[in-house]
Prior knowledge:
Elements: H1 2-14, E1 29-36, E2 43-57, E3 60-70, E4 87-90, E5 93-98, E6 101-107, E7 115-120, E8 129-143, E9 146-155, H2 161-166, E10 169-172, E11 176-177, E12 192-201, E13 206-208, E14 218-219, E15 233-236, E16 240-241, E17 246-250, E18 259-264, E19 270-276, E20 284-285, E21 293-301, E22 304-313
Amino acid sequence: MKWIFLISIAFIFSLPxxxxxxxxxxxAEWTYDLHELTQAVSYTGYFRVYNPHDTIVNGEVATTxxxxxxxxSWYLDDYSEFTPAIIKQDGRKVYRFIxxxxxxxxxxxxxxxxxLAIVIYDVSSPNDxxxxxxxxxxDSILLANELIKKMHLIPLDIxxxxxxxxxxxxxxxxxxxxxxxxxxxxxxxxxxxxxxLRCYTDSDKQLKLVxxxxxxxxxxxxxxxxxxxxxxxxxxxxxxxxxSTLSFVGDSQIPTGNVEMQIFNASGSLVHSETIEHLNFDQxxxxxxxxxxxxxxxxSGKNFYSVQRLLVFE
Length: 314
């Protein structure tokens, strides 16, 4: 029995837990949910980053990618906000090319309690800034007989909170964030929003985080449109940490009577519906949401409706 035990231990430690994982090997492919977050939600398509290939940037060998969209909206031809990154790997660190320089994107040498400073690139602003993320957990997963390090991050900063919140969650070595490859802002995207990693595949392994096909286009019943005028009734803060209390903010002319609240997840499924009786702006609410992600919140009442994107991070 002791001999069997020693063999088992030897096998476990033979797995390359601390080995450097290659980023973007030949055949690597990332597929993300691409959600149409409009008043009438109708589908979730996909955004694929694939075909990693070498390029030379500032005299250094780097990697760039191709991308494609799977969407019923054939006119969606501008996805500059989600342009695939140019990256380079240095050991267990990965750097992203921003405004003629390489800046840290992932650091898997980081340990529990470390703070990572990630440069945020905002295409709408001439100035970049920094998101600070705290490493709160270190773990690993087994993919194709290889132990892959993963770490959980939460945002610390306020100024870049939407970007930092979106880039929080689990990061997998060699794969990246379980949201998107680099920080972006899903709260203010123009209708079409990347909301989560579906699948990563290469010639050796696959990480599948959804229960549907990696390249599926999900068609579902939309949120019905109201015949009444849109008034803003929102929940704040946004983004918000899972389990936190939110407050109502909005136009003063919104009736303070009963309001129907519906919550849809990034796949378009209705996850919660309730009637809020005698709504007023002094009350607070804790949403019945158990998983972080991007949600669509719809409010409707007498002669008004309002639709909001809400980012919930863990």
